[in-house]
Amino acid sequence: MDNTILALHQVSKVYYGQDVETHAISNISLNIKAGDYLAITGPSGSGKSTLLSVLGLLEEITSGSYCIQGVETRSLDADTQAELRNLHIGFVFQSFNLLDGLTVFDNVALPLHYREPILTAQEIEQRVIRALTQVEMSHRANHKPSQLSGGQQQRVAIARALAGEPSILLVDEPTGNLDSKNGDAVMALLNSLNEQGVTICMVTHDTRYAGYAKQQIQLLDGVLVSKSKVSHSAHLSEVM
Ligand code: ADP
Ligand code: MG
């Protein structure tokens, strides 16, 4: 059986401004399979976040095709795209996007209240506790985000994405707002989640952190310029 989760074929995205067209990504073809841990690297402005937003169905593509679990997404209406996104995609933003009025528990639970099929309160609680345990934050369930370090907030943002039980985690610059100690800890967490079977696609401009992933692609001016497999030993030694 084909275990491809996301498949891009010759995908381009153009942003149309008042009098400028920005070709953010051009003719990108890419398959992500179950169990993969892919790092998207490249300098600032090279199209990394655009590519991740396309993968997360947060941006419409201009040309090409994009399939999620074999379903071609381009012809779908907005509601059906939203359903597919809820079902398959866990998005983790660089800025965490946690709500400070809510506890950690409620932040993780919030998206679950808007899902089909509707979950019972007990099912939601189980999922939230399981996700917080996966990121080792269950002991902070009743804290507010402002009482946590940046690294802990990033863990909660990852838990919120995991609680939806997505097919893939899409993570944009997970260490971008963290010091190196917290950054290393978040990268170790992503490695451990991948070892537990979570499929991950991460954007990073930091080549050292890209080495934590199992596969890497590099963008330059919106073009995919290299694809490589990180050797298993490099993968392990980076983690140690
Ligand atoms: P990266 O994440 O690698 O820094 P981006 O995907 O954010 O790159 O940006 C790629 C190009 O697309 C840049 O030239 C950027 O200015 C442009 N861009 C990104 N988002 C938008 C947008 N919403 N509207 C117009 N241009 C955008
Ligand atoms: Mg970016």
Automatic annotation (TrEMBL):
Annotated PROSITE patterns: ABC_TRANSPORTER_1, ABC_TRANSPORTER_2
Domain of life: Bacteria
Keyword vocabulary terms for this entry: ATP-binding, Nucleotide-binding, Transport
Pfam families noted in UniProt: ABC_tran
ABC transporter domain: residues covered: 6-239
One Gene Ontology term of the molecular function aspect: transmembrane transporter activity
Gene3D superfamilies recorded: P-loop containing nucleotide triphosphate hydrolases (3.40.50.300)
Keyword Transport appears in the UniProt entry: yes
InterPro entries cross-referenced by the UniProt entry: AAA+_ATPase, ABC_transporter-like_ATP-bd, ABC_transporter-like_CS, ABC_transpr_LolD-like, MacB-like_ATP-bd, P-loop_NTPase
Isomerase recorded as keyword: no
Gene Ontology CC terms: plasma membrane; transmembrane transporter complex
Family indicated by similarity: Belongs to the ABC transporter superfamily. Macrolide exporter (TC 3.A.1.122) family.
Protein name as annotated: Putative ABC transport system ATP-binding protein
Organism: Pseudoalteromonas peptidolytica F12-50-A1
Native organism taxonomy: Bacteria, Pseudomonadati, Pseudomonadota, Gammaproteobacteria, Alteromonadales
